[in-house]
Structure formats: C-alpha cells, structure tokens
Amino acid sequence: MTEQAFLAQIDEIIDGHHLLKHPFYQLWNEGKLTLEMLQEYATEYYLQVHHFPTYVSATHAACDDLEIRQMLLENLIEEERGSANHPELWLRFAEGLGVDREAVLERQNLDKTTESVRILKELARSKNVVKGLAALYAYEAQIPEVSTTKIAGLQNYYGIDSADAVSFFKVHEKADEVHSQMTRDALVKLCSTEEQKQAAISATQDAVFAFNLLLDGIYEQYCQAA
C-alpha cells in the first residue's frame, strides 16, 4: 500500500464516522438541543476530556522514536500545564452552561461513556505505538472543525459566548490543526510495513467507534426520550 493510499484510507474512515455527522452534534448545530441536554453533555463528556491526556502520555511512553516522543510531550504539556489546563477549561465550559463543577466531578457516567474511555485507553497502552498515534489522529483531525461549529452553536442559539464558556473550544480550534498534522506525519514515519499500516487502520476504526459511542449514550439517554 502506498503512503498516499494509506492516508486516504485513514481519512476516509474518519470522514465516514465524523463526529459532526452524529445526531447529537447535528441537533447542536441546528439549535435543537435544550439547555438541559447541553448540561448533561457537558457533565458526561468530562470523563473523556479528563482521560485524553493519559492517551497522549501512554502513547509517548510506548514510543521509541525521540522526535515523535518530543512532539507528544509538547502535546501533553499543552493538555495539562498550569491552571488553564484542558480539563479545567472544560469545567469552565460546564459552569458557563450553569452546571456546578462538583456535579461534573462526582458524575456517575453512562456505560457507553466508560466503554468509550476503556477502548481508547487500550489503544493508547498497546505495545504497538501506531495504534495510539492513529487514535490520537482520529480525534485531533476532527476537533478544529467540531470546535468551530460548537462555538457558533453556543453563540447563535444559546447566547453563550463568555470567554470561560468557550475557551476550551477556542484553544482546540487552533491547537489540533498543528497536532493532527504532526501526528499524521508520525504515522507515515512509523508505518513502513503493511502490518503497521493495517494496525493503524484498524485502530482508526476502533477510535472513531469509541468517540461516537460516547455521543450515542448521551443521545439515547437525553435526546430520544425527550
């Protein structure tokens, strides 16, 4: 498989299961979610945001390539450094929706949320580092566009535009453009054999399933019954 065909197959998998095609995000972009639905989403999704730095960290630890480790370290530092770390920014988003941060931190998560996190942790902790990289790319390749549409929906339909409420998405509009390209380059560098390419493709499929699984649980629990 050529490098071009390899990347095209990964991108096709991501596009076919793009988060913006999920019914929950489509309702968001159409202004059809209630504030209560958004609050449940913000409270539930925090588990993914809380654990995402550990996916980066585990992939970093599994990698023998110094240049790629340095890239992952920079990513991890951005995720967790200082008082404005990314989990903290998500908590500020939840507070901007009127949710108490203690309610977020004490949440009893849905089964599909915990399963989503389990799958992604397993990919990141795999002995085959390309699986962790592919999972990171599957997320980071989508997030700039997802973040832009989330900000627009919050502002246009819900009147939510305070700096704290949208800071998580503002950061990811730009940061993941860089991260996704660097992770994409790392995949090309490490996937020199057919076996490695197939492992990356399989991990991409597992990752996009996991990211959508979390939204499935939220949609089924809070939107279908409404």
UniProtKB/TrEMBL annotation:
Annotated TM spans: none
Presence of the UniProt keyword Oxidoreductase in the record: yes
Phylogenetic lineage: Bacteria, Bacillati, Cyanobacteriota, Cyanophyceae, Oscillatoriophycideae
One GO molecular-function entry: oxidoreductase activity
Protein name listed in UniProt: Folate metabolism, CADD family protein
Gene3D superfamilies found in the cross-reference section: Heme oxygenase-like
SUPFAM superfamilies: Heme oxygenase-like (SSF48613)
SMART domains with a match to the protein in the record: Haem_oxygenase_2
InterPro entries xrefs: Fol-rel_CADD, Haem_Oase-like_multi-hlx, PqqC-like
Source species: Lyngbya aestuarii BL J
Keywords in alphabetical order: Oxidoreductase
Superkingdom assignment: Bacteria
